[in-house]
Amino acid sequence: MEQPEPAHEHQGRVAVITGGGRGFGEAFGRSLAARGAHVVLADIDPAAGERVASEIRAAGGEATSYDCDVSDEHQVAAMFDDVVERLGGVDILINNAGLHSQAFNEPMANSGIDKLRSLFDVNLMGTIICTLAAAPVMKGRPGASIVNISSAAADGCQTAYGISKLAVRGVTVTSARELGGDGIRVNAIAPGLIFTDTIRAELPEAVVDMVKATQVIGRDGEEQDVVEAMLFLVSDRAKFVTAETLRVGGGLSIHV
Ligand SMILES: NC(=O)c1ccc[n+]([C@@H]2O[C@H](COP(=O)([O-])OP(=O)(O)OC[C@H]3O[C@@H](n4cnc5c(N)ncnc54)[C@H](O)[C@@H]3O)[C@@H](O)[C@H]2O)c1
């Protein structure tokens, strides 16, 4: 199969990335813009989203940022309406926005209902809300593809965070089933321990050491490892792949 030049692989396509202001979302945005896509960075932190968008534009790419909370269906609908009006439709959706700080890794009894509700509102409902809003404007577009971001934490479900990410795996299967007829593939990535700024700042060294000791590949997981998985899943190389969750964790999950 002939492959397009990487710089043009997504030329003329529109990619919406939630949580695009930092971490994986920022890396996803930069990599898709470098391959010609107009990237839409939706983030609850508008300054972060706009910083990334303006740096992409300064480098010659196309990017727009939106102040958008994925758990608020009205904000999400308004964003997709505006994107369609300005850019004509959506080809790629990356449901990446998620809460995953240490605060969500404590026993559920310590978290309290409000915190648990906010976790599921963002990680689970945010994924569902954005998928439902995007599907009608992705329908029938060649190569339409959604990638959800789950986690290795789904495998053990040791915390509420793990439950929320197991649910993301379930949403991936259900969405793939429901949207397959519209020509939309839906897959997920389950990253292991990947050194984004948030992980570096928040995860205690003892936990890092413990997780790394269980990996088959002992080195640090990098954002680029997850970017490569995303680039595969949204590409034509994966055109027969849907409803799957691809683990990217250096073999972390073989112990589960
Ligand atoms: N870093 C890891 O090791 C790792 C491992 C497994 C899964 N994940 C998942 O990958 C995703 C990204 O992780 P990261 O490390 O880049 O996170 P991060 O915390 O560095 O960045 C998340 C971004 O999402 C935005 N955001 C948060 N809530 C939002 C909301 N309600 N609406 C819109 N935007 C919102 C934040 O402002 C931030 O810009 C998350 O879903 C996380 O659970 C990360």
Question: Can you describe what's shown?
Answer:
The chain has 256 residues and is α/β, with parallel strands linked by helices. It has one domain (6-255): Rossmann fold. Helices cover 47% and strands 14% of the residues. The protein has 10 helices and 7 strands. The chain has helices spanning 23-34, 46-58, 73-87, 108-111, 113-138, 153-156, 160-179, 197-202, 205-214, 223-233; strands at 14-18, 38-43, 62-67, 92-95, 145-149, 185-191, 245-248. Strands 3-2-1-4-5-6-7 form a 7-stranded parallel beta sheet, with helices on both faces. Helix 1 (23-34) links the parallel strand 1 (14-18) and strand 2 (38-43). Helix 3 (73-87) packs parallel to helix 5 (113-138) and helix 5 (113-138) packs parallel to helix 7. The chain is globular. The model has no long low-confidence stretch (mean pLDDT 95). The chain binds nicotinamide-adenine-dinucleotide. Nicotinamide-adenine-dinucleotide binds next to helix 1, strand 2, helix 5 and helix 8.
Over the alpha carbons, how many angstroms does the gyration radius reach? 17 Å
* Sequence of secondary-structure elements: EHEHEHEHHEHHEHHHE
CATH architecture: 3-Layer(aba) Sandwich
Number of helices: 10
Mean pLDDT: 95
Structural class: alpha/beta
Biggest β-sheet strands, sense, barrel? 7 strands, parallel
What's the arrangement of strands in the largest beta sheet?
3-2-1-4-5-6-7
**What is the CATH class designation?**
Alpha Beta
Helix content: 40-55%
Bulk shape: globular
Annotated CATH topology? Rossmann fold
The small-molecule ligands in this entry are: nicotinamide-adenine-dinucleotide
- Write out the CATH superfamily name: NAD(P)-binding Rossmann-like Domain
Beta strands, count: 7
